[in-house]
Design a protein that fits this description.
124 residues; alpha+beta; Double Stranded RNA Binding Domain; three-stranded antiparallel beta sheet; globular
C-alpha cells in the first residue's frame, strides 16, 4: 500500500473535522480541553474535563454522538513527527485509525477523529 493509500484508508477526512484545540490543567490533576469541531455542516465549540487529553477528546466525541472506545494504542516518533495508531471500537465494530502531529496530543486527537469518522462511515 502506498503512503497516500494508507492515509486515505486509515486517516480519512470525514464528517468530523477538528479545528482548533487547547488544553489547560485544572484542579485535582485534571485537564480541561476545548475544541472547535466541524460536524457535517455545523461548527461547534465544545469542552470536556478529564484526567488527560485523550479522555477529554473521547468525551467530546461522545457528546457529538460519535463515541469511540480505544482498544489498542501504539505511537511512534520518526524524524520528529508523531504518529498514533488506534484500534477503535463502538457497538462491537472495530477499526484501525491513525493520526499524525507535531505533538503527541495532536497525533492522538487526529487519530481519535479518524477513528470516529471510520466508525461513522461503516469502515469497521
Amino acid at each position: 500500500m502506498s503512503p497516500q493509500g494508507f492515509t486515505d484508508e486509515y486517516a480519512p477526512t470525514g464528517c468530523i473535522r477538528l479545528g482548533a484545540w487547547s488544553m489547560e490543567p485544572t484542579h485535582a490533576d485534571m485537564v480541561t480541553c476545548r475544541a472547535t469541531i466541524a460536524y457535517a455542516d455545523r461548527i461547534m465549540s465544545l469542552q470536556a474535563q478529564s484526567t488527560g487529553p485523550i479522555g477529554a477528546m473521547t468525551s467530546i466525541l461522545y457528546d457529538l454522538g460519535a463515541p469511540v472506545q480505544i482498544v489498542r494504542f501504539h505511537q511512534r516518533e520518526v524524524d520528529g513527527a508523531i504518529t498514533t495508531y488506534l484500534l477503535c471500537e463502538n457497538d462491537d465494530r472495530q477499526c484501525w485509525a491513525c493520526g499524525t502531529g507535531d505533538t503527541r496530543d495532536e497525533a492522538n486527537f487526529n487519530a481519535l477523529i479518524a477513528g470516529a469518522n471510520r466508525l461513522l462511515d461503516g469502515a469497521a
